[in-house]
Write a structure and sequence with these properties.
The chain has 114 residues and is of the alpha+beta class. It is built from 2 helices and 8 strands. It folds into 2 domains: 1-59, Signal recognition particle alu RNA binding heterodimer, srp9/1; 65-114, Roll (2,3-Dihydroxybiphenyl 1,2-Dioxygenase, domain 1), CATH 3.10.180. The radius of gyration is 14 Å and the shape is globular.
């Protein structure tokens, strides 16, 4: 079963948003850089990205999948529209995004085989 493993929030002020989410989640980020701040919140990761560098107008949920290319193909065949091609964002971690027929964008994430 695939599950939501990551929710990304665009941040106009990354430092301010980091303080806010650290307070909200009652934890410090496990990863912090100028392009990504990550928090662990139970089984879900909360990520903050600079709003200026991403074309997000709100939160974006990422579903963890085993085969991202096959999942993208299946969703496109079911009427989705590709938003972001499969991209290696770090050491084999693959992400992509599609727009569902209803207009909502959904992210996909595949962890590298270890």
């Amino acid at each position: 079963m695939n599950s939501v493993g990551l929710v990304i929030y665009p941040a106009a002020d990354l430092a301010q948003s980091t303080k806010y989410f650290a307070t909200l989640l009652d934890t410090q980020p496990y990863a912090e850089s100028g392009y990504y701040v990550g928090f662990k919140a139970g089984d879900v990761e909360i990520g903050l990205v600079p709003q200026a560098a991403h074309r997000l107008s709100g939160a974006l949920a990422y579903v963890d999948v085993k085969d991202i290319r096959a999942t993208v193909a299946t969703l496109l065949a079911a009427g989705a529209e590709k938003v972001q091609d499969v991209t290696d964002v770090a050491n084999g971690l693959l992400v992509a995004s599609v727009k569902a027929p209803d207009g909502n964008t959904l992210g996909l994430r595949q962890f590298p085989d270890v």
